[in-house]
Automatic annotation (TrEMBL):
<dbReference type="GO" id="GO:0051301">
    <property type="term" value="P:cell division"/>
</dbReference>
<dbReference type="GO" id="GO:0005524">
    <property type="term" value="F:ATP binding"/>
</dbReference>
<dbReference type="InterPro" id="IPR015854">
    <property type="entry name" value="ABC_transpr_LolD-like"/>
</dbReference>
<feature type="domain" description="ABC transporter">
    <location>
        <begin position="6"/>
        <end position="223"/>
    </location>
</feature>
<dbReference type="InterPro" id="IPR005286">
    <property type="entry name" value="Cell_div_FtsE"/>
</dbReference>
<keyword id="KW-0472">Membrane</keyword>
<dbReference type="InterPro" id="IPR027417">
    <property type="entry name" value="P-loop_NTPase"/>
</dbReference>
<keyword id="KW-0131">Cell cycle</keyword>
<dbReference type="InterPro" id="IPR003593">
    <property type="entry name" value="AAA+_ATPase"/>
</dbReference>
<dbReference type="InterPro" id="IPR003439">
    <property type="entry name" value="ABC_transporter-like_ATP-bd"/>
</dbReference>
<comment type="subunit">
    <text>Homodimer. Forms a membrane-associated complex with FtsX.</text>
</comment>
<dbReference type="Pfam" id="PF00005">
    <property type="entry name" value="ABC_tran"/>
</dbReference>
<keyword id="KW-0132">Cell division</keyword>
<dbReference type="InterPro" id="IPR017911">
    <property type="entry name" value="MacB-like_ATP-bd"/>
</dbReference>
<protein>
    <recommendedName>
        <fullName>Cell division ATP-binding protein FtsE</fullName>
    </recommendedName>
</protein>
<keyword id="KW-0067">ATP-binding</keyword>
<dbReference type="InterPro" id="IPR017871">
    <property type="entry name" value="ABC_transporter-like_CS"/>
</dbReference>
C-alpha cells in the first residue's frame, strides 16, 4: 500500500519560548490528493508548510513524509524526500544571473538531463504560465507576479510527488490565477499531491477539494 504523502500525529510547535503556534495537529495528506490550506493571517499556514518541508522541527508529536518518520531520517533520505517535493514559497529564490528559461530548466539540468530532452516542455510550460515572451530575460527585470510564475514553473517542471505552494496566486490577476489553478489540477490528475495555502475564497470555490483550516492553533478539515 502507498503510504500517505504526509502524516501528522499530535504535532505541536512553538518558536523559541513563545506560545504554541500549532497544537495537537493530527491529519494526513493522501497520495494524489488536492487540498487547500487556509486560515487567517498569522494562523500558521507557512509554519505548517515548513514542517512538511522538514525545514523546521516540531516541538512535539510525530511527522512522517512519504512513509518516513522525519525524526529518524538520514541525510540521504532527507535529500531524497526533498527531491520529491515541489515548493513555491513567498521568496522565489530565482538565480539572478540565469534567464527565466534557464531558471525553470535548472532542476532538470541538475538531474543531468540533456537540454534537447526537455527544451520543448520547458517552453510549453513557460507559455502556459504566461511567460512566453519573458523567457530570455533575467529575473531582476521581471515583475513580482512574473517571478512568482517562474517559481511555479520551476517547481512543476520535475513533476514532483507533492507540491507545496504558499499563496501561489497572490500576485496575479484573477484570470491568470484561474489558469494557474488549472495547471495545479492537471498536475494532480497526473498523480501529484497538492497543498495550496491561500486566503482566496473565490479561488477555493473553483475546485471541489478538501480544506485544511487553521485557527487558534488548531486544524479542522472541511470536505
Ligand atoms: N521565525 C519565527 N519566529 C517567531 N515567530 C514566528 C516565526 N515565524 C512565524 N512566527 C509566528 O508564528 C505564527 C504563525 O505564522 P505563519 O507565518 O506560519 O502564519 P501564516 O498563516 O502563514 O500567516 P500569513 O497568512 O500572514 O502568511 C505567527 O504568530 C508568527 O508571528
Amino acid at each position: 500500500m502507498v503510504p500517505p504523502a504526509v502524516q501528522f500525529e499530535n504535532v505541536g510547535i512553538r518558536y523559541g519560548m513563545g506560545p504554541e503556534v500549532l497544537r495537537d495537529l493530527s491529519f494526513s495528506i493522501p497520495p494524489n490528493s488536492f487540498q487547500f490550506l487556509t486560515g487567517p493571517s498569522g494562523a500558521g499556514k507557512t509554519t505548517l508548510l515548513r514542517l512538511i518541508l522538514l525545514s523546521i522541527k516540531p516541538t512535539r508529536g510525530l511527522i512522517s513524509v512519504f512513509g518516513k518518520d522525519v525524526s529518524r531520517i538520514s541525510n540521504d533520505e532527507l535529500t531524497d524526500v526533498r527531491r520529491k517535493m515541489g515548493v513555491v514559497f513567498q521568496e522565489f529564490r530565482l538565480l539572478d544571473h540565469l534567464t527565466t528559461y534557464e531558471n525553470v530548466s535548472l532542476p532538470l539540468r541538475v538531474q543531468g538531463k540533456d537540454e534537447a530532452s526537455y527544451r520543448n516542455e520547458v517552453v510549453e510550460l513557460l507559455h502556459w504560465v504566461g511567460l512566453g515572451d519573458r523567457m530570455h530575460v533575467l529575473p531582476p527585470v521581471l515583475s513580482g507576479g512574473e517571478k512568482q510564475r517562474a517559481a511555479i514553473a520551476r517547481a512543476l517542471i520535475v513533476r514532483p510527488a507533492m507540491l507545496l505552494a504558499d499563496e501561489p496566486t497572490g500576485n496575479v490577476d484573477p484570470s491568470l490565477a484561474r489558469r494557474l489553478l488549472r495547471l495545479f489540477v492537471e498536475l494532480n490528475r497526473q498523480g501529484t499531491s497538492i497543498v495550496i495555502a491561500t486566503h482566496d475564497l473565490g479561488l477555493m470555490d473553483l475546485v471541489d477539494a478538501r480544506r485544511l483550516v487553521l485557527g487558534d492553533g488548531y486544524l479542522h478539515i472541511d470536505g
